[in-house]
## 1
Amino acid sequence: MAWFKKTRKPIEAKEKPSRVPEGLWVKCPGCAQAIYNKDLAANLNVCPKCAHHFRVNATERLRMLFDGEWVEHDPRLVSTDPLNFTDTKSYKARLKASQASTGVKDAVVVGSGTIDGIETIIAAQEYAFIGGSMGVVVGEKITRASEKAIERRCPTIIVCCSGGARMMEGALSLMQMAKVSAALARLDRARLPYVSILTDPTTGGVTASFAMLGDLNIAEPKALIGFAGPRVIEQTIRQKLPDGFQRSEFLVEHGMLDLVVDRRDLKASIARALRFMRAIPAPSPEPAPALAGVGREST
Ligand SMILES: [Zn+2]
């Protein structure tokens, strides 16, 4: 019986106990330098030395994009676990654990406020909540966000950060791709701008639906963006993939995205783009035209 049993113990990496208090310094995965975490926070979680973009939670995202106060929408929508799903752990327990650790009820936070004075609705995905996966609640919240944008005649922004559809909700999670896409099509017909911000990582069903549907698709530097992972693709096509495959810079070069913008310039770039799309006229001494009639110029 011992034929296939591992008798030797795997080598354990021995780390010396650190005398530095936990969480005061962060090691940058980009340049391996230690960064004081307050410096990192002040720099929008971008490494001041090598510009590595650390992952940011949804609430922090809204804070860095909105001018000041914002109103959160539908914060209490929760999944009902329609399939009564269990894998290594029950889906109900998984939801409960994620809610406790992130402080949000599902993997997206929607808020309305202003970006550089422009009234905007932003939906930001929360990666720490089951990999930012898109289930029924995420689909419903994003749909409601776009409906609210039509009601108020204001632009919509979605900050994508997701592993894709939520397996624990089966086909219902896949249906969200169609549902959100339909909601965004209505936004388009109402001639309102939608800007998609793709952050690390944006994969699976999210890439296959709303992440790529923006009037403008902006990515953060070096973000992993794709549908299937590189390993799966390599095994399928039996070819070695080029360097930087599925990273923002590669995708811009190949026409999949419009822009790669450093997080520190993101807010200004979005505001400029929204003004360009004439979501709202640029602040000027001239009398502002009525909002309802302002759309993109027809050709
Ligand atoms: Zn760094």
## 2
Amino acid sequence: MRVCRKRLANFGIGTLVSRRAALFVLSALRGRTRSGVTAIDFALSEFQLSLRDAVDKICARFSDDYWLQRDRDGQFPEEFYRALAADGWLGVCIPQAYGGSALGIAEAAIMMEAIAASGAGFSGASAVHMNIFGLNPVAVYGSDAQKRRMLPPIASGAEKACFAVTEPNAGLETGKLQTRAERRGDRYVINGAKIWISTAQVADKMLILTRTTPVEQVRKATDGLSLFYTALDRRHVEVREIEKMGRKAVDSNQVFIDGLEVPAEDRIGEEGRGFEYILHGMNPERILIAAEAIGLGRAALRRATAYAKERVVFGRPIGQNQAIQHPLAECWMELEAADLMMRKAAWQYDQGMPCGPAANAAKYLAAEAGFKACQTAIMTHGGYGYAKEYHVERYLRESMIPRIAPVTPQLILCFIAEKVLGLPKSY
Ligand SMILES: Cc1cc2nc3c(=O)[nH]c(=O)nc-3n(C[C@H](O)[C@H](O)[C@H](O)COP(=O)(O)OP(=O)(O)OC[C@H]3O[C@@H](n4cnc5c(N)ncnc54)[C@H](O)[C@@H]3O)c2cc1C
């Protein structure tokens, strides 16, 4: 099996997908007990292992020094983006009819975990995150003509897109969005401001949530919002980069929109139902962010463990001390536990089952475990952990991102308390 896996890993995603059907039958047969009941299988399938190997091979071409350099100069990792695009990886979740590979969120999560764990961290994962799942509202709610127009360039990497929801005066309260899209004949005119919009410096397109019906005229504050996927026309959209703590290679921005004309055919689905469409993609997005946080935590743990074996103080490797071993062992367990929750959520989503509690729990657990692993990695390195050369300080700065975005730990706890435990809504 090992040889077979190695052989498969030499191909791009196209070859892998065509072999998938045969492997799927094989693994389906393996997953059945004698009584015919499908058993829980914690192992990755042969196909998934091949996918992981193939992505690992691409990531291995981008060294820690490459990512450190991008963290210094803030340049978008274009070579990395192109390498994944060239082998067809950017369309992993996009339907085959529109240039993608139509794989599940479980496979996309394996891919994103592999990218982050390679040492690319969030600089690598965020560079392609939007291509992987960002256009889900178009794939699910777009018309056939829209899908034919919008999805293939994202699957091939020919176009980059950004996702514009957050606003300075609304924060997590999406119902308070103020950016307006006004209908004028066969077009809409958008005015307003967004904040924290990642990749807006390099994006060709923008998926944007705007208000089309004033909040006073709707039943619920989240009604009356509409979703557009449209050209980021810089004559009407000013993009101002935010100087931030980490992930300098993938920009985040203030975006000011002044009279942006959008053809009506760029509206996704029905007017006024945009929030509902965004909501549909939130669980899989949390699953992917969880996978990325776990990958980053594993990269940190790998570096810390290697250092603990090498560094000799008081005549022995520091890793021989329980005070160094135990926090590392704890990080391993917490990352594994988060990984199981993440894979449960991905499995539920791919089966078409409700996955809100598992997806939110996975995002929370993975972000906290990833952060703890990065922090522990610095402490294991002592003073050297504070030097950029050892990479773990960069990881720690990036590990704050999945804690904050796309939703904070507090709001996830509120969700679990209310929706799972049945406690009264607190906000
Ligand atoms: C690096 C980065 C990249 C990002 N990229 C994007 C992007 O591409 N597109 C996009 O649209 N957005 C993006 N975001 C925005 C991100 O999703 C938001 O920052 C996040 O949703 C939190 O919103 P906020 O910052 O406005 O926090 P606020 O809503 O102002 O909340 C501030 C704090 O108060 C807490 N809080 C608020 N209400 C309650 C309550 N009822 N109970 C308990 N605690 C509460 C929150 O948990 C949080 O800790 C990005 C953010 C970062 C940092």
